[in-house]
Give the backbone structure.
Amino acid sequence: MPAYVVFIREQSFDQSELLRYSQLAPAGLAGHSVKPLAMYGTHQILEGPEIEGLAILEFPTFEEAQDWYTSPAYQKALKHRLRGGRYRGVIVKGIQGSQDKLTQNGDT
């Protein structure tokens, strides 16, 4: 079952740190099955406070997403992202099956 990593950039502090992160982060993806779905493109806030942008990455499993995030290569890059801005990050397990699961679950 797929899992999704979502990063929300709330505020940038240091562009040089974010640049360093963008240089190091691709090496952290090596050896991991990841599919970028959205990368800080055009967005519209529907609820909640304004954000600067967001990224969504798809992994084959929740465990694969966890392994990527905790890998030494990504942790090396991560420290620069956290120095460069305020972010929120989450891993969420996806669902398989039809749209009916949404109505069965009661969440929309």
